[in-house]
Protein 1
Amino acid sequence: MKRFIVILLISFLNSLTFSQGLINNATNFYLSANSNLILSGNANLINNATMTCATNSNVKFTGNFVDQYIGGTTTTTFYNLYIDKQDVSSPGNIDLYLQQNINVSGIIFIQLGHLNLRNNLVDLGTTGMISGENISSRIRATDVAKTEGAGTGIIRAIRNNPSGNVAGLGLDFTPATALGNNTRIIRGCNPLQGSGSFTSNYSIFRWYRIEPGTTMSNLTINNFYYWGGTNNPELNGHTEANLQMFQWVQYGAGNPQ
């Protein structure tokens, strides 16, 4: 396969497109503000050194009909990340998957194709958000065989005194008291096992964990979003009408039980 070795790139152009494997293993890869790096065809991003994505820069994965991946030895920090992939022969089963953790400080736009965590972390930090997620183009975590719910990856955001649908993660909540600075909201895509008399029960392929910055608080859950409906991609075999919300860890008087 033909590959490109990038030594130093300072992009002043509006767009730069690669259609085959992209290797970044040199000193620096710099994507300037308001520019686009488009990875189409079977092009993958393999970051083995330093990749800098300036404010308002865009990295777009548009390889239709094939999976693409983000890998390498170094965690990549994107500003905006676009996923726009399709497959006529197997709709709803094409991924941009992770072989490495990534950070996103702007927006993850999911237009077509899934973002597959594959046991890795997407860190939205204090500013990142998700946009466009839908039942056939969503965040999921599978194994290599693309078994739904078989991956343990997570996506998280860090906010000060958060409430509402934070970062578009899909949990809309209101705390009784402020949770404090640097509170973490974490979403997972694998089933969790019940405890006590419910050890034979497993959840749907979605769960949330909130790690307060300073203060424990009762929460009012306004909405808990998941992908059910006709295709039932996150239901894990459950009947949607029978679902009940549960806490894996309960807190009483500030102590876990």
Protein 2
Amino acid sequence: MKEYNQENIFEFETPPLPDLSGYSNSVFSETEKPRNADEKFIIFTLAETQYAVASNSVSEVIRQLNLTPVHNVPEWFLGIANLRGDIISVVDLHILWKQEISTPYTAKTKLIVMRCKNPDFLVAFKVDKLCEVITLSNEAIQPLKDNYSSFLSGQAKHKSGIINLLDVKEILCSLKII
């Protein structure tokens, strides 16, 4: 044990700083993995079109919450809600993609809460109906033709038809709320 006297009372060893060179500024959690094996997707509908998001980018699926509107925001930003003490931003993809006006809430309407790396930021997509969870292989996913949509990462055929796979990272980055 080191003895301290008046001359060395303020001497201390500083721990080495961590190496941050490999730090990624991604909005997604560390559990996000590249698509290189069979992967689970959550299928939902928007305006009778089927979409899917990778299950590893979804935190949870919830029912409608009481929304608090926010002033001076784009129309697609429906408001904020309290989810067990956390504030989440709710986005209407219908309006964001200028497909149509927002569909009314029904018993089937769900909010898909996205998993983000920053725990202080949570965003939920309002969807018309949750369909099912499926597993897709890499071979089942087809790339899109040139510049079809920056919000889609591919398409897949499924028993219920063509499923459009969302690029959640691209959507969240385009929102400019993160």
